[in-house]
Write a structure and sequence with these properties.
The chain has five helices and 22 strands. By secondary structure, it is α+β, with helices and mostly antiparallel strands. The chain has four domains: 110 residues, no CATH class; 87 residues, Immunoglobulins (Immunoglobulin-like, Sandwich); 91 residues, Immunoglobulins (Immunoglobulin-like); 42 residues. A four-stranded antiparallel β-sheet has the order 12-11-14-15, with no helix packed on it. α1 packs across α2. The longest helix has 41 residues. The chain is elongated and about 135 Å long.
């Protein structure tokens, strides 16, 4: 474990140096400096924990004390004097108190751009929602990164009521944690790269997302969540002026105190009732019958549900009460109704004709029988 801490710390050995074109860096000199720093860290470093941008934690040897004043605390290796248009390659060696730790690692060849425009983050931005007991509702922000990207960013997170700005310095973690979000809220997120001297800012990349709903964490009807309105509100108007109101509950009946139905017309014309009427319904019932007075009235119907501590949520719908009209002529001429009417009309005549023909046939048989008897 100690070697791991040394590896993490000693990568910061050459915290700053100037690169001159086509001149070899004094590797032996920097190697001795790194070894000196490793010995100081090993002797005076204090085991501590730091939190990364993705919310995880890692242990390291903290050298922020009077005995380690000569140790550079920065975790970045800053290089100055790079020439645009020239390709560079860097090699990093981890050094411990007793010498090299592991193999030397090399970076790919990189050309420094001469463009004054700061490169914006490469999209798309990816957000993964989650929840934990310490940070509440969270989201993890990720986007594709490359070696040419900036290490400094400005992040802005906003919803309909608040806006938060945050300066970020990237670390080894693959994502950025956004903690303590609100349940079931639409968020807008924008992130832009910033230069090391904070004088330049790139074009921002934006995305929208919705945080986790409370019911997915605590369950439907939980008192830890705000109550939700009913769904599938339906109103059936009967010819006698009554209406059947039905809905789908947003929680189990044991988590609901009661329902309240409030309805009224939008005008007094044609006998409409402008005064608000209220009907209370038990928690285990999801329908109610009310009366809609008047003709040609538009009524507003609101269904309010209360949770066990009295908090409410509501949804509403409108319904038009039309006068009862006579059956239209074209409705009566529909083929199926014409067929039924024809059967009703012609069936008695058919039965009567059949009955008459049968009596006539019996009369003719009787006459023939009489003639045969006389002949004999």
């Amino acid at each position: 474990m100690l070697h791991l801490h040394l590896l993490l710390v000693l990568l910061q050995t050459a915290s700053g140096f100037i690169v001159l074109p086509y001149i070899q860096i004094d590797y032996a000199h920097y190697f001795r400096l790194a070894q000196c720093q490793a010995k100081c860290t090993e002797k005076y470093g204090v085991l501590a924990t730091r939190h990364l941008l993705d919310g995880s934690a890692e242990e390291f040897l903290d050298t922020r004390n009077p005995d380690c004043e000569a140790v550079e605390p920065d975790i970045f290796i800053k290089v100055k004097g790079l020439v645009p248009g020239v390709q560079y390659r860097f090699m990093v060696t981890a050094v411990g108190p007793n010498g090299r730790l592991g193999e030397t690692i090399s970076s790919p060849w990189t050309e420094i751009s001469s463009s004054a425009t700061l490169k914006a983050p490469t999209g798309p931005l990816t957000l993964k929602s989650g929840y934990n007991s310490d940070r509440g509702v969270i989201a993890q922000l990720e986007w594709p990164r490359s070696a040419q990207d900036s290490c400094y960013y400005k992040l802005q997170l906003s919803n309909s009521s608040t806006q938060i700005s945050r300066d970020i310095v990237l670390d080894s973690s693959p994502s950025i944690l956004l903690p303590h979000l609100e349940f079931d809220v639409d968020y807008s997120l924008a992130i832009a790269a910033v230069s090391a001297d904070k004088l330049q800012t790139s074009k921002a990349v934006t995305t929208n997302f919705k945080s986790l709903p409370c019911r997915d964490i605590h369950g439907r009807g939980s008192l830890q969540c705000a109550p939700e309105p009913v769904s599938d509100l339906a109103i059936i108007v009967r010819p006698n002026g009554t209406g059947l109101i039905s809905w789908t509950p947003s929680a189990d009946s044991q988590n609901i105190l009661f329902y309240q139905i409030v309805y009224h017309a939008l005008s007094r014309d044609h006998g409409c009732r402008l005064r608000k009427e209220t009907v209370n319904v038990k928690a285990n019932v999801n329908f109610a019958e009310v009366t809609f007075p008047g003709q040609q009235c538009e009524y507003v119907v609101r269904v309010i549900n209360y949770d066990l501590i009295g908090r409410d949520a509501s949804t509403e719908a409108r319904v038009l009460i039309e006068p009862t009209l006579p059956v239209r002529f074209e409705f009566a001429l529909r083929p199926e109704y014409l067929t039924i009417a024809a059967c009703i009309v012609f069936l008695p005549f058919g039965l009567l004709l059949l009955f008459c023909r049968r009596r006539q046939c019996l009369h003719q048989v009787s006459e023939k029988q009489q003639k045969l008897t006389e002949y004999v």
